[in-house]
Every structure is written in structure tokens, then in C-alpha cells.
Amino acid sequence: MAAPKKGAVGPLVGAVVQGTNSTRFLVFDSKTAELLSHHQVELTQEFPREGWVEQDPKEILQSVYECIERTCEKLDEVNVDIANIKAIGVSNQRETTVIWDKLTGEPLYNAVVWLDLRTQSTVENLSKKIPGNNNFVKSKTGLPLSTYFSAVKLRWMLDNVRNVQKAVEEGRALFGTIDSWLIWSMTGGVNGGVHCTDVTNASRTMLFNIHSLEWDKELCDFFEIPMNILPNVWSSSEIYGLMKSGALEGVPISGCLGDQSAALVGQMCFQEGQAKNTYGTGCFLLCNTGRKCVFSEHGLLTTVAYKLGRDKPVCYALEGSVAIAGAVIRWLRDNLGIIETSEEVEKLAKEAGTSYGCYFVPAFSGLYAPYWEPSARGIICGLTHFTNKYHIAFAALEAVCFQTREILDAMNRDCGIPLTHLQVDGAMTNNNILMQLQADILHIPVVKSSMSETTALGAAMAAGAAEGIGVWSLEPENLSAITMERFEPQIQATESDIRYATWKKAVMKSMGWVTAQSSENGDTAIFSSLPLGFFVVSSMIMLIGARYISGIP
């Protein structure tokens, strides 16, 4: 006789977390915030040319369905009734751009990923059209004109992909960031799928007015984007539609947040001045600025933090965005082959104990905040015959921490009140060497949540709190307390400052490597004469010999 299904303490809420490297589906108890089960699928990234980064939208969608089905099977195995899942939230990699055919449901081109650099010449041409005394793009969107955001990726597709051009001409094309593609597909696709996005994702397109919370005609005209292909913009917490297939058919999708906004919610940074740093593929520091837009004077972005209900107020954030964090560890694994799993980097770094003067600037996609310098490329410098893979692993972790200090310093200058500690989350926070390095380099305590899946938690909270769902209270007195682990600085501030100053010298050396033409064509350009011990990452192995990378004496 089959064992009876057991109910969890409270209603359950699921969360799709669609990231750059992987997709996850997680199920939480809405009363305790306990994570009950999850499943993860790693994704393929395609690099058709140097600086180009693409993903298959169908692979992304299939990974979501697989994660949902496997998680439901795991719940069934422990006798948890999936009928208790009352809502689903979606969190996603932001800016990544998809265009698909609304009649067939087929993508018209690969997803162009947020890290992609092919649009640099597009950016340079557009920047010449912005009046020097009236940067209406930044004043309306809070964003600098950059390859990072969706509008220029969409413009590139419209200029270069005949399938896209034809579909737009015939009224068949739909545009969206990853959240839009997933929600449209999961709510029926060609059979009545809901074409929508939320305010946080819309605010990363460079087509959205963050003051009026609407698509902006002047911006769309500037980028020459037809407005009829854009999704409807909703709040981050309301019922968008129902799942139309699979184990969770009929369950409402009622939460949607860009991944960094979801992490801000999951960290419960609901008060003005609260901040968090997420270590994922990139690194993203967000500070809640409440109901007012604060414009940075130090290279940060102004963005929509969340709007947790149709009739709820919008909240904004200052954001420091770093392109490469966890991605540098994947690069060590997949490109250099000095580790077999991402977890090994902590072991190598621990054995080294120091980088021995080796500095790594992982500017694989140029430099984001606070520089916004697309001509930069990755370098490793300070190499000697003594340098081996252990020191390079340590330098890679230090690079993540130095980049965080750069955006934290900018945040402190913009806000006027320095942060006294840093709340952190994301997969990389499981690396204790990284967390201790971060505390040492910032010289403030780093506070890590015991719940590393705060992005998923934020999406689940938004979904469960939606009107018509109401299984998750966001009232302060009802929010579950989460235990924290604290890392205190263990080195003198002067030592931290010396290492940081040397890092800044390396950053300056990384700039000016490529022109717009070379980044678009995939060719290398502008190599200056280099001082001894200074090497471009892409030719590093050839220059210093594989034996030193491998740690062979």
C-alpha cells in the first residue's frame, strides 16, 4: 500500500531561477522559508566569434521544464504533495535578448547574452547622436549607453538577421528578455501565451522610462525599435497566467524579478540604505534607495529594484555591475583546464595562501562599473617563473574581491554613508576563502546568509505574496529570520590598501586593447609594448609555458 502524501507545514511556492550558467527550480515552504527540494541543469554557452556570447532559447526553456519535473519527482519521493504548490515565481538573467515568432513559437535567432560585445560599433554610432548637454537616454533609463543592455542587442538583430527583419515586417515577431520568453511559453505559447515582463526586467532594456514606468516612444524612436514587438509591463508580483503543461499544470505564475532584484528581495533589503552583493556569473551590488531615483556620479546604474504588486509603490536601487565573477572560475575550468570542478578553486587558493604578486583582471567582456570601458580585455600580470596554477587560482578569487571593492567605494561616495558591513549571497559565497578575502580587502565584515539561494527565495516571496495567491506575507513581523555567518577582516587596512592600489594599476593596463571594428569582427587589435612579466590572458600559456600553469617545477 502506498504511503500517504504528507503535507508541508504551509503552502508551497516554486521558483524558477534561470541564470547564465544554469537553470534551477526550487520549492519553498511559504510559512518558514525552508527549501524543500530543487533541481539544477547546467547550460551551454556558444561563442561563435571572439566577444560574441549566445545561448539557445529552446535549450533554456527545456531546462526549465526539466528542472520543474525533476523537482516534483523528488518531492513525490519524500511524500510531499505537489498539489500544495500554489504559485511559481520567475527570476532570470537580465538583458539577454530573445526574438521569436509568435505564430510558430520558434526563436528567430539565438539569445544574445548580456555579456556579448558584438554591438560596440552600434553603441559608438548611437552615442554620437546623443546631445552632449542632454543625455536623455541616461536621464530616462538610469543606464549608460553600453553593449550590456537589450536595446543595442535588439538593434543589431534588426540590422543583421534577415529572419528577424522579415518577421518584424510581417507582424510575427515578439521581443523579450528571458523572463518574457519563459512566461509566454509556459502560459501557452502560440496557444494564448502571455507576452509580458516586469518593471525590473524592463528597466534593463534601455527602452523603458523608469520614472513613468512605461516603454518610452522617444527611446524606441532613437534605437529604431518598433513598439509593437515589446511585451506588456506588469508589476513584479501579480498573476500573469497559468502553467499550461507538465506536473504543475494550472499553477499560477505570479512573481517575476530580474535576478539581482530577486536577490535584494530574498535578502529582505526592503529599507532605504540596505544593500546586498550577489556573486554569480557576474557580481552585482545593489543598494535600496527607496521611492526616489538616485543618479550616480561614480559609474553606478540607477535601476528599478521592485514593485511588489500592481497598486504597490515602485522602489529603486543604485547598482554596481561587474561582468565577470563566477565566470572566471568557469574559465579556469573550461578554457585553461587547471581545475576539473568549480569547487576545486578553493582548495588551490588555500594551498597557495597568496597570489605572490600575481594580479588577474578578468575583463573578458570589457569593464563594467565603475569604468564602463568596452576596450578593456583580460590580463594576468606580475608573473614570474615561480607562478603556478595555485597562485593564479588565488589571483582569480582576489579579482572578484577587488572588483567588489571598486563598486562598494563608488556606492559609498554616491550614498554619503559608508556601509558598515556587506550582505552577500550567490553560489560563490560557499567558498570560505573568497569570503575571508572579501572581508580583508573591504576591511569591513562580510555577512553571509545561511540561505545561499536568496535569488530563488525572492522570486518565491514575490509569487506567494501576489494578490489572489496570498500565501506569503511580506510584513516585517512575519518574515522568517535567517541565520548569518560573519567574516571579520584579518589583515591590517594598510596591507589591504597596498594590494588594492596594485590591482588598480593592473586595471589601467587592461584598457585600450581593442577597437569597435576588432570587437565586431572578432579580430585582435591595438597591442602596445608590454613591460616584463605582463601578459595578455589569451596568449598566456604560450608565453609562460604550460609547465608553470600546471604547477610542475
Estimate the mean pLDDT confidence: 86
What is the tally of beta strands?
Answer: 24
Number of helical segments?
18
> Quick one: biggest sheet?
7 strands, mixed
Distance between the termini: 64 Å
Name the overall outline.
globular
- Report the portion of residues in β strands: 15-25%
List segments where confidence is low: pLDDT < 50 over at least 5 consecutive residues.
Answer: 519-553
**Estimated structural class:** alpha+beta
* Strand arrangement across the biggest beta sheet: 17-18-16-15-21-22-23
Organism: Marmota monax (Woodchuck)
GO molecular function: ATP binding; glycerol kinase activity
EC number: 2.7.1.30
Domain Carbohydrate kinase FGGY N-terminal: 16-266
Short description:
The protein is an alpha+beta fold and 553 residues long. It is built from 18 helices and 24 strands.
